[in-house]
Design brief:
391 residues; 53% helix; 16 helices; TIM Barrel; alpha/beta; eight-stranded mixed beta barrel
Length: 391
Amino acid sequence: MVALSRELEQALERGDLLFHYQPKVSFLTGRIAGAEALLRWPGADGSILPAAKFMPDATARGMGPIVTRRMFPRLLADLRRIRACPGETHVAFNVSAEDLDEAGLVGLVREAVSADGLDTGCLEIEVTEGTAVSTNPTVTRNLTGLLAAGVTLSMDDYGVGFSSLEALNRLPFSALKMDQAFVLRMLQSAKSATLVKTSVAMAHLLGLRTVVEGIESAEIYRTLLHYGCDEGQGYWLSPPLSIDGYLDLLAADRAWPASPVGMLRMAQLTHTWQLKLLIDLIVDHLEHSVPAAGMPAALHVGHHDCALGRWFYGAGQTLAGDPDFDALETPHRALHDHCADLVAEIEGVRACGRVQELLIELGDRACQLGGALQRLETRLLLRELANRCGG
């Protein structure tokens, strides 16, 4: 082990270590959305040693932060080449608790922003659950420093430990990465499939992007296609590639199967949940007969700003012109107008009977919107089926 550490030090001095990039594919577009940077150690015999073969020993000997500091400039150089390609892609970079137990990484990122003009929006830091739940104040402070610098934070290996929910509640993650253990068992275990579905739904309710690992077959990919995941990675999509191989894949603009159904379902789920929370607040008002002063604004927003509106006026616009898609706007806007009337009645301390009447009517409007959404979803699924069957 000591010899391996010395060899690693020498390899770092020579600049032998490099990154391979495993693509992440968007389930919505079917195209590459980003990649995970994975450390590799090329051997003189042409072999490529993955990080799992040498980094545990290096970390045990306190070399982890040294490797990170020495390799970060290499990552930036690769990132500049990647960003020169057409399209918007990001790169995820794994860090450990040891990397965050000192200010070095935060300093590297800030220097790259000020000196090299790094667009931190294209850099994502992947943090394992064990690191995220650390109570070390230095780790927490440096995570906060990275976020302040504009870097997005992703929880890696979600579901492996027991403290994921606590960490998600405490730190402002932007993405959740599902551990491949659940995904690989998904086709054989209904419980694993349910865990994946509910974790994806929870992430969307929290406003997090979801990434799934372990896509090792076309069957797994097809199964995940309608779950609402944002991105996926795995050997069926692509193994980790050298920087040149990854750039070639980006240039080829390859497309995998894609579907808007998953994102539609997640937008509808989040919108429905927000509506239920608003109804609960209104019923609480009726029960206690007091003004609902300070009603959380997040529970009543305009039709452009709610979860369904952000989808409809954003990613959903790829469906513009479809009559069932276009038909969503009127009932959706009417539902929000109705909610505004309800809030006005409550805040104005008006007649309780009028609030109850509006609340019952709200159910009818929600059903109208739900029916329109279901028609669109069914049409999209039937269209995909016809395409797969060649009809």
